Amino acid sequence: RFIGDIGDSLAREIAYELDGVEARPFALRLKGIDFFGGNKPHTLYAGVEESADLRRLHSIHERICQVLGLNAEPRKFTPHVTLARLKDPDVLDLQRYVASHSLYKSRTFDVARFVLFSSRPSRGGGPYAVEESYQLQAGL
User: Fold this and answer.
1) What angle do CA 12, 43, 7 make, to 5 degrees?
2) pLDDT confidence of residue 123
3) Burial of 57 by CB count in 10 Å (0-12 exposed, 13-18 middle, 19+ buried)?
4) Model's pTM, two decimal places?
């Protein structure tokens, strides 16, 4: 869940609440290639195959953020892995690339933790730093 700019106190509260999240490890697979930005593409990404476990984890994070006073995330949840930040790409070339990789599927991989990242202002997003890492618990 994207949180945005917040103060240190709220960041500590969120980190504390995330430490109490109870969820089992699960498996994921990347599926398909696409981009964000419509007619002005800015990010190329690999999508994530539908996962009830990932949606549940996202819902828990969203509830924590709202209970702590943050507004609901207005954007649709689109789990993804960013592959590239784009600067003025040729839209037709990008569309051809996406179409030729639309059937991409990764191997299934295990998700045993989730991570709280922070970022510092810079061009193109990032750099990202791991603030906390939270293990998912088997046997829940």
Assistant:
1) 15
2) 61
3) buried
4) 0.86
